[in-house]
Amino acid sequence: MDIVILTDSSCDLPLSYIKENNIPYLSLTCHLSYGDFKDDFGNTLDYKKFYNSLRQGEMPKTSQINTYTFEKIFRKYVHEGKSIIYIGMSSAISGCINSALIAKNQIIEEIPNADINIVDSKSASIGEGILVYKAIEMLKLGASKNDVLYWLETNILKMNHWFMVDNLMHLKRGGRLSSTSATIGTLLNIKPIIFINKKGELINPYNIRGRKKAIKSLVKAFEDNFTNIENEVIGITHGDCIEDALHLKELLIKEYKIKNVLMNYVGPVLASHTGENMLSICFLGKERIF
Fold first, then answer.
1. Helix, coil or strand: residue 182
2. Given phi > 0 = left and psi -120 to 50 = alpha, else beta, which region is 22?
């Protein structure tokens, strides 16, 4: 049975990789004052336009993928006789996994032999993207469905996410930071460091004062937690701060001889909660420490 890897737009893979590998995906939605837009890797809503809107004070809202949309795409591939592996954003951050499970159960009631596998990545952004990337590359090398599922099961909690957030107002609006903390933090030039824990939740283990020091802290987080560096892909995403992203990439390549780096913007749905100038590094390494 042929295998199809599905994902959602929160994986933040480069659009070129999505197209080259014909990866089917489902889009979350970003609601702006001037319209509703599918999060589709910058294809519909230009990244620059979106981030300029944030800098001008736009406070977007977002919505997840509904059950009907999952059911529609699952049915398509079931009718084609394919085995489905959907790798989705952490269920602790979004309701997409839950919607996918409901859709799967509805289809199984009608088609008991439908082969639909739902994988809660407990990840987001390019961390989720790297898991999709690894699954796709495994299939290219002839891996079976069970091989891919086993690899995902044993490596999900080894996916490290380290985010540096610049605009505290978005964290405040999302309920992850109090108004007082956001105001004081802004005045003191505090940059929260965000980590995704074992439950797939966003947590704030520590804060750094100053952007340059915060970027160095991302390098230190990598240094403390990487393992098989020569054979792994590193992911870097940014909130329209390409110079900082390239600087981070340069630091990692120079110091650790990294060969493969996936780099992209943070998509509009995730960036609605993290704001402009966010910078992240994601990589497979030691198991999550929190």
1. helix
2. left
Residue pair 229/258 in contact (Cβ under 8 Å)? The answer is yes
Structure token digits, residue 6: 């599905």
Report the candidate in 233, 240, 284 with the shortest Cα–Cα distance to residue 262: 233
H or E element that contains 206: strand 202-209
Q: What is the pLDDT of residues 146-178, one digit of tens each?
A: 999 999 999 999 999 999 988 666 565 555 445
Q: Which residues contact 132 (CB under 8 A, 6 or more apart)?
A: 5, 7, 11, 13, 23, 87
Give the model confidence (pLDDT) of 6-61 as tens digits.
999 999 999 999 999 999 999 999 999 999 999 999 999 999 999 999 999 898 99
Give the three-class secondary structure for 119.
Answer: strand
User: Is there a contact between 267 and 54 (Cβ–Cβ < 8 Å)?
Assistant: no
